[in-house]
Amino acid sequence: MRESVRQEIGNLSELIGRSQPHFVLAIDFGGTKIAVGCATLGGDLLVQRRLSTSATRGATQAVGRALAAGRALSRDLVDRYDGQLIGVGLVSPGVVLADQILLAPNVPGWERLSLRQLAAEQFPGIPVATCNDARAAAVAELRWGHLQGIRSGLYVNVGTGVSAAVVIDGRVLAGSHQAAGEIGYARADPAADGPGYLEQLLGGRWLARRASLAAGRRLSVADALSTSEPVVREVVDKAIDTLGHHLANFSILLDPERIVMGGGLMNAAERILPRLRHWLLEVVPFPPELMAGAFVTDAALRGAASIAIDAAAEQPSDGRAPSCAAPERVG
User: Fold this and answer.
1) Rounded Cα distance, 107 and 92, in Å
2) Is residue 145 included in any domain, yes or no?
């Protein structure tokens, strides 16, 4: 992929003029890509840029390039539209703590990062908020998307990794160790040979690898999801059915009103959702509604914008901005 792609969305001057000249910076760190964007206080994305994570080169360079891109985008809005940056939101896979990130193995060195401190050094005096990416995506769907008005729901991300966020009484649940929703660690099938964990079965990189082995040639995950080749379809169907089995069990436990799916694999929603829906209808006493998210590929980025907006509005007197490590209520 290209090192970076910049995309301006709509007419920037009109969007900024529609509310205040204030804006926030949002950064979504992923295993294969980093999304950087600026948004109005109403959640409209003004401009965004995508970078390759270049995971094999380690965590430091990834964060450094993302923050540099964020500074450049912010400076451009300030110079061109007299805007004012008032908050920064950063989201990442794993358990995002003040001084480290747990359960984020895809980028070497990621567990030693303090995202908030690194961002605060680059944006002095501006409140910074951090959050797990799946929970941030759920916040965005609650605030502006397909979880609006839902009191009990589930957001499931299927992309490079597999994760979820639980919505109870309109709140995104963090859990006692801030690890609620780390479903990628669920055992896929303890009695069978093959992948041990759900993420190793359905995560994009792993799914592409197994599909390639079955086909005898290299396939991308998009290829695997779109091909009609029987041996590849069997691999993909097994992965989707395993996720469906887990979603059915989660639904029996949580009794959600709606499950919203996001992440890169939802570009093939027509391939995935019908099989998942079959599991819910067959197994769950009160089957939840199932749909793709309103923000299939950028929910986490919009969630980063959401927590930045809240950080700017709720900055404590000691200068430390809140984190969505605690349960977030929307609406």
Assistant:
1) 11
2) no
